[in-house]
Amino acid sequence: MKTKLPATMALCFSLIAACGGRKEAVLDGHWRAAWASSGGEIPVDVSLRTNAAGGLEAEARNDTEVVKFSRVERFGNNINFFIDRYECVINAVLSDDGKSMSGHWSKQTGSPNEMSFSAAKGDLERFPKEAYPGLADKVPFADVSGTWRLQFEGDDIDSVGLFRQDGERLTGTIRAIDGDFRYLEGIYRNGLLLLSSFNGTWVFLFKAEMDGAGVLHGSWARGPKEPVKWMAVREEPDYPDPFNVTKLSNAERRLCFRYPSADDPQLFVSNEDSELEGKPLLVAFLLTGCPNSHDSGALLSQMYKEYHSRGLNMVLVFYELTKDVKSARERVQRFKQEHDLPCPGLFSLAMSKKEVGLEIPDFERFHAWPTVVFFDSLGKVDSIQTGIDGPATGEHHAHLVGEYRKRIEKLLLPQVD
Q1: What is the domain extent for residue 248?
Q2: Up-side HSE of residue 22: CA atoms within 13 Å toward CB?
Q3: 140 within domain boundaries
Q4: What is the DSSP letter of 220?
Q5: Does 394 map to a domain?
Q6: Between 20 and 30 A from 58 (CA), which of 14, 87, 143, 179?
Q7: Cα-based torsion angle of the residue sequence 39, 41, 43, 49 in order, rounded to the nearest 10 degrees
Q8: Are residues 186 and 197 in contact, defined by beta-carbon separation less than 8 angstroms?
């Protein structure tokens, strides 16, 4: 004999059956991600894949660079993407059809930032022609490959654009005295230049148009901050020697510092301590939230492994732009572990380059993180390297590595006062 279920119970069973039969959308594949900046959308290629354990993995690509997300967490249609080294997270909500998502991006290293985020699934162009047509008028250069003297508004030192063009696809980087802009990717389309990148903590968009004289006039959007104007001409710039930019305020070639250890804040370390006397010393001033500092960390790790056994000492001083001692210590320890640097790691609570100058008045002017000071075995400054030419700069990075070796080898020779 059949019995009739109450209407409410029947409805519950039908909902359970429907939910149980619904499959989560497969997210594997390419996505065109975009951050909404003050200078327009910043598009980047992102790939998702399901690993053997059934979890999601994600990575962003800028030219040959692959930026892996530390982890991806999914709760139904809510998806969170994390990059732990920069305390960066994307919180997104997936559409019901699984073909798009939207949400926001935020990071805590340095000044907290937040931007709207969206992504669409498919092998989509970074800068599609329908949305980004080239200029209507004919322009002097159909190909912008090569070296450009590039000037950002407000800078007193010119930068260098290093571009490679293949068809309309454009890649390259920008050398700047406080560190290169790492890997950029985009298009050059009849006078319209567009380059973008997301490297875990920075989201960049370079946009420019070429005038009749072949000069690029553009803007650099850095996320929620106001865009910076720039212009570039196709010529070799008079670029300064990175080892001859930061000067000392004294003629005795002295530079003194004293900072607490990230391992024990009660322990203060100075370059005048007896443990550091009598041997050449490299002191690096870094930010864990800065990709250039991570490039510097990789290079310093390489030098430490090659030369520490021969007598080279090394100290890392971190400026975490926070007054939270616990957070600063954790960031320093994570950086050292990631780059396998067993040397002392110190930290400062200074919040600006100006404050660094007040803490270390021996600097005539502090220009950039990273800055690396080379001390000889007598405790005097041999040279100071400002910024970094990272791997994205190609031959310039190779030259920098050679300079490190040459200068360290010189410091390891017997010194005469």
Answers
A1: 242-411
A2: 13
A3: no
A4: E
A5: yes
A6: 179
A7: 140
A8: no
